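User: I want to check something. If I give you two sequences, will you return the structure for each one separately, not as a complex?

Assistant: Yes, each is folded on its own. Here is the first sequence with its structure:
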Amino acid sequence: MAASELSAQLWKERELLELLLFKLEEEQLLLTAGKSRWISHATREVEQVMERMRSVGLARTVEVATLAEEWGISPDSSLRELAVAAPDGIWSDIFSSHLAAMTELTGQIAEVRDTNERLLREAARSTQETINGLAGGAGDPGVYGAGGESRPGASTARLFDTEA
């Protein structure tokens, strides 16, 4: 039965979404801990999960088309449309549950991804300011004001954390 195959495919996709969320949170932990040495590894792992998701997404599209044909609806129907068109109540509930779980996971993924992007931008800006400061004071970032704006400061002693 095509509905069983689609449900199995959706489980695979949900597991990959959970793995992606884990990898993004792992990346976030590295960023907040200042462990930039491992960021490239974490990013590569995120990319590997994304590649697997593309393959699983393609397989899901095939399963949806097969089931849609069986149920007499459009082959490019969404998961929500399949849940509504399900001939008996159990498949409607199953597909609705998959949809709710996947929607929640994608929301969490977007939130963590946005935070990671912000942390990466901050790290890049900090690195650039440090490099500028080491280049003889040219483009000295100075100090930060209470609102986070950069203010010119004295180019005196600098303190570097060598253990990070």
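And separately, the second sequence with its own structure:
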Amino acid sequence: MLELLSEHACFGGVQRFYRHAARATGLPMRFSVFLPPAAANPGAGAGARPGLFYLAGLTCNEETFAAKAGAQRVAAELGLMLIAPDTSPRGAAIAGEDAAWDFGLAAGFYLDATEAPWRQHYRMYSYILELRELLVAELALDPARVGICGHSMGGHGALVLALRNPTLFHSLSAFAPIAAPSLCPWGQKAFSGYLGAEPSAWGGYDASVLMAGLRAPFPDGILIDQGLGDKFLAEQLHPEVFEAACRSAGQPLQLRRHAGYDHGYYFVASFIEQHLRFHARNLGAAA
């Protein structure tokens, strides 16, 4: 059951924040959803609506995208639902959970942990799939028209979830994703802590590894934007590794590199409209 925490009129639609009891994490979870005008107002011809999941990055929560990206205006025009989950479970009460900004609280890395003490609650991969099904049932999300996007850690999550579930997520994009987490300090720290020290256990959550074993899973293309002024680009993100994996897999990829842009939400806000229109075309939403 969904508990509505707050709602705000926005561009003819409504921005809502919810909480619910999640099976995957065993804890209450929060998420935000923007309902475009037709979905927010049943008299306006509401029906099953296309939707876009947006997965946020390290230190963020379910409010970050809604407050900072400026996506609602275009989503209202396109008739596109926007769904933004939290970035980790809250309330797991694990010792040291909040000791680092890049592991633990607000850093769930969109995987299902296998190592104690994380494996009981840190199951964000399964949670995103659970949330998708919940919104199909409760908020008329059209299961045949669901896309996924993300930023940084969330870009990693979006790539992994889509590549592992191309029949559930039908359109894919990312902003500055951690594209080869097995090769970077953020990913190595998260994977060793959540999945164990053996790198052979990490490949199922590494988008570049996953893509290398596929053949053009998204024939309509994948869109990635990367700022060249991003201080994390060289050490943490490795978009060129994912680009090479796509080339090998015959996967169409738009990897757009932008001079001067950094890693933050000024970058995301600058290109979010193009991502929303990309997803709307792929999902058959209003043009």
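Because they were folded independently, the notes below concern the second chain alone. The beta strands are 3-10, 13-21, 28-35, 49-55, 81-85, 141-150, 171-175, 222-227, 253-258. The radius of gyration is 18 Å.
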